[in-house]
Amino acid sequence: MPSSSKTAFLELNRWSGEDKPKMADFNADNQRVDDGVSAIRTLLDVHTSAGGAHLTTQSLDAIAAATAHIASADLHITEDEKSRLDTSSAFTLHTYDGDDQTTRHIVLGFQPRFGFLFAVNKSIIENTSWVPTISHFAAFFSQIGCSGRITLESDGITVQSYNHSSPDGNRPAFNQAGETYVIIAAK
Q: Is the dihedral of CA 37, 40, 42, 45 positive or negative?
């Protein structure tokens, strides 16, 4: 069903929450845009071949309207948004082996929107009874905030791992030698 509202110039569909878009509606809108760009191209060719005659106000308005429509983030999604819609690549699974470095940068090749990491075959936290220490083997991270000792980077995450506890008795264990870690991250 066509939308209940149309754009002013090209009369393209503007759907609201109650509308039920159909493929034919999208195809019709695409044809209108294609026809408009084709008309602009023809006008430019005619005016250029006529010895550089000036464009009319109407043709300039058509160029401005087509340019504004194409550039509108309200009407079109960005390339980055399109890539995030591809569910086959929406998440990535990454593993690394701990090497006991206090700070370690894990390169994922993108800044994750959110995700979590955990040590394989370990509890989320472990408490040692002989020393009042809680070792943390799992954490969450997001663009809004991260668990303690995890930092979001433009191309991955940075983790910290201590062989001793902090004054509050917590010990981040996100890079312990002999442990394998799994990261599940959303692009």
A: negative
Across 150-185, b (16+ Cβ under 10 Å) vs e yields bebeeebbbbbbbeebeeeebbbbbbbeebebebeb
- Of 157, 186, 185, 161, which is closest to residue 173 (Cα–Cα)? 161
Q: C-alpha distances in angstroms, 141 versus 77, 165, 171?
A: 26, 22, 17
Q: How far apart are CA 67 and CA 71, in angstroms?
A: 6
Q: Which residues, listed in sequence order, are joined to residue 109 by a DSSP beta bridge?
A: none
Q: Does residue 39 contact residue 62 with C-beta atoms inside 8 Å?
A: yes
- Taking only the tens place, the pLDDT of each residue in 33-86 is 777 767 666 666 655 555 555 556 666 666 667 666 666 666 666 677 666 666
Residue 187 is which amino acid?
K
If residue 117 lies in a helix (H) or strand (E), which one and from where to where? strand 114-119
Phi then psi for 131, rounded to 5 degrees?
Answer: -135, 135
* Neighbouring C-alpha atoms within 13 Å toward the C-beta of 73: 4
